[in-house]
Amino acid sequence: MKKSLLYLLVFFLLSGCEEEVPLDTLEPYTEKLVVNEFFNNQDVFSIQISVSKNAYKTPEPVVLDSSKLKISLLENNTSIPLLYNAFDKVFYTNTKPSAGKLYTLSVSSSGYPSVKANGSMPGLLTGKKVEYVEDGGIDMQGNTSDLLKITFKDDPNTKDYYKLNFFYYSELVDKLNAFDFELKDILSAVNTIKTRDGGFLFSDESFNGQSKTLTAVPPFGLVKANTTFKYLIRIERLSEDYWKYNTTLEQYRGGLDGGVNGTNLFGGAVVVYTNVKNGLGIFAGANIENDTIR
């Protein structure tokens, strides 16, 4: 079972002036439990719990095992049985999350404040259509290349958040890769955030309730020799908590890089969002839709 460790990040930058802070005015720091769980419609729950001290001071946080934790998961106030994978140190279920249901996670461990988090997963998109036109576009070098399109209808009754990825498939290394392309429409907006995997985070602020079509033209020749499939278009409809975590994380990373995604290194502190009460981390859901183009 694959599980990515959550790296919790709190970033403090010094301003141009210095000011002494009396040590007796600082609140004592309390170690906290860290929740790591992004759930979706394609996978079962896979929950990992670590400790804030180790999350900050080591490359990978020390994860707590089942002997040190008491953990429960509810779906609309009904308990869901949790199993334990000792190799990966994750708690998992035999069933996948469902859209529109409320999930409540509670965790306690001796020596740490007990934590609790609520999470939900949005429903699937409506009116979604994916199109592929071979040699139907012009890439950034002026060459004729493939045109990829995705169209979907935004829900007028809700505030919606999205993540969109265009990938090409490399048969040589058996891997999906992002590619650079000319950004248009919402993908070029100043409030759209590009993620480390080449995706784009955006909300429906400028097109609430409307149909939206987004396009990409990959560089010429990427998949000309492919014998299996060529591209994959992935769109995720994110919960608000998922959106807040991802956007603040990318803003934090941008600060570290000195300006990625328009973040200014000297623009002030960025605190990564958490929805875990009395703890750190994230417990939030997304609905994922993948379309393969052959």
Which labels suit this protein?
294 residues; mainly beta; Immunoglobulin-like; 2 domains; four-stranded antiparallel β-sheet; disordered N terminus
Give a short account of the largest sheet.
10 strands, mixed
Question: Fraction of residues in helices?
Answer: under 10%
Strand content: 35-45%
Task: Count the E strands.
Answer: 19
What's the pLDDT, averaged over the residues? 86
Structural class: mainly beta
Query: Based on CA inertia axes, which overall geometry fits?
Result: elongated
Question: What's the number of structural domains?
Answer: 2
Contiguous uncertain segments of 5+ residues: 1-19, 258-266
CATH architecture of the largest domain: Sandwich
Helices and strands in order:
Blueprint: E1 10-11, E2 33-40, E3 46-51, H1 52-57, E4 70-75, E5 78-79, E6 83-85, E7 90-92, E8 103-108, E9 115-119, E10 126-138, E11 144-153, E12 161-170, E13 175-178, E14 193-194, E15 200-203, E16 211-216, E17 231-238, H2 240-256, E18 270-271, E19 280-293
Parallel strand pairs: 2-19
Antiparallel strand pairs: 1-18, 2-3, 3-7, 4-5, 4-8, 6-7, 8-9, 10-11, 11-16, 12-13, 12-15, 12-17, 14-15, 17-19
